[in-house]
Write the structure tokens for this entry.
Amino acid sequence: MRLPTVHCRQFEGKGSQGKKSQIIYDSEIVGPDCEQFFDREWLARHCDRCAPKRGQAVLFSNGDGEFVYKRYHRGGLPGRMVKRSYWYHDLDETRMWREFHLLDRMRSLDLPVPRPVAARCEKLSPLTYGGELVTEKIPDSQSLTEMLSRAPLPAEAWSKVGRAIAGFHRQRVYHADLNASNILLTRAGEVFLVDFDKSEIREKLTARAALANLQRLHRSLCKLRRRLPVFHFAEDDWRALRSGYDAAVAAG
Ligand SMILES: Nc1ncnc2c1ncn2[C@@H]1O[C@H](COP(=O)(O)OP(=O)(O)O)[C@@H](O)[C@H]1O
Ligand SMILES: [Mg+2]
């Protein structure tokens, strides 16, 4: 069993409609009442702007804190059923527990990721589960997708994104879905990565796996350029990202 960090607490929650649920939270930030974050009505009252839509991250505030809520789902192609259940094997192996602990571990390695706040795993049937994760909002941040649909980025910013990715690779982190929406840039120019579902710290991160991460990001940028009416991405930008990445890898 993976040992939770000292400030992580776990308890059996009430769950919705009589379902059994387990909750994990960071007791330095919230208390056991964080269970309310997973209540649809509570969330709708505390979220920014809109009511939570399915398959979308929700920004909400509680006291002085600002948080981001996401529900795990698979599939989700437009018009298709969004499936929210997974086969249950062991709590530590659930998507939300893995992502919660991975974020915690990456933060202890000083990697720029959001702080995990709470997660819930709900047994949907004896063999299946679903769940949610809440993280601390990265203040003053926008995703690369949002930024590039407004204005181009200077080469230095692209290079910084490359250096940030290299920092993760140096710690053997494999990001399972490195795309432009999972890269956040703050107003102060810091780069954060989010959305570590199915990601992992590998015993050894091969050059091939690292390259697969970069290629996925490149494909995502090209796809957005094709699909969005305005999207500032040119091959020179990619070269700037690669040179930042390569320099950071070489500096080791
Ligand atoms: N901690 C965070 N702080 C600020 N924005 C976030 C945070 N986590 C997610 N987001 C925003 O919400 C979007 C969706 O969250 P993400 O974790 O990527 O879930 P999904 O599985 O829906 O892609 C991200 O692209 C990012 O723009
Ligand atoms: Mg995402």
Observations:
- Helices lie at 40-46, 95-108, 144-148, 155-170, 207-227, 235-251.
- The longest strand covers residues 116-125.
